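Deliverable D4.2, example record:
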Amino acid sequence: MAGEGSMMSANTSLKNNRRNRTSKLEKFVNTTTNDNIEFVDPNTATPEELAAIRQRLQQENKAIQKKKITLTFSILVVILITLAALNRYL
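Output generated by the structure prediction step:
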């Protein structure tokens, strides 16, 4: 049959491309790992290190909470302004 060689090369190319692709699991692991923070073993960490980690986490959580409150408040204001405008003109 004609064209068998081209089909075989197409299949080979597809197999090679599949091998070269990164899997979804590898992509997920790459996005969830945090390589820029050093690992501190809680069993061998000093109380000062644990206090510093606790303080840093509290500051990060406060910053995240402020962002959430600001976003919620701004969305609420936009909704209220939209409802007031619709109520006035409709």
